[in-house]
Amino acid sequence: MNTLEAIFSRKTIRSYTEQSIEREKLETIIRAGNQAAIAGKLEFVVITNRNILDQIQKEAKAFFLRSGVEKLVMLASNPNYEVLHNAPVGIAVVISDTTDPHASKMNAENTGCAVQNMLIAATELGLGSCFAESGSVAFTNPTIKDAIGISNDKTVSAIVTLGYTENTTPAVKRNADNITWCE
Ligand SMILES: Cc1cc2nc3c(=O)[nH]c(=O)nc-3n(C[C@H](O)[C@H](O)[C@H](O)COP(=O)(O)O)c2cc1C
Q: Taking the model in full, what pTM does it have?
């Protein structure tokens, strides 16, 4: 699969098998994330520990339930909903906490670049993946930061869920009605 094939066949996967992912594949995916256009610094934590992944899911659900936001409360009330889709692996993208709006924007943009590289690499390697931004809310709890070994001045901006999948539906082709050419 070449780069363009990977880009055009990538799709969000929210259902994974329990099959574990080969270490070599995880290392390739993390290198792809780290190789992204990153202006500044990101860190990555590869989480394969089931207990920690479950703690993140539980904490994020509790956050949603406390939020009072109708959509989030509804999601979290569904017993089948898990923010990390019970994936066997989550790669946390770690940023330095900041109140500076420019640094905060750069953090978000860096995260997007790194995540997209990992999603595309995962596609080429035959893995399902999802940009699970909602998993990051779990890290408002310092205990969860502690569980993955990050200090209190850092936070998780996104989690990439990864796993093998039985989902074989092709990626939905986007139409081009939002593209303008100025020639
Ligand atoms: C910034 C961002 C945050 C996202 N957060 C979540 C999330 O928390 N949970 C989830 O299941 N999907 C999440 N997604 C996946 C989107 O829902 C998905 O990319 C979109 O529906 C388009 O589908 P596709 O990826 O299959 O093309 C996120 C995507 C982006 C770009």
A: 0.96
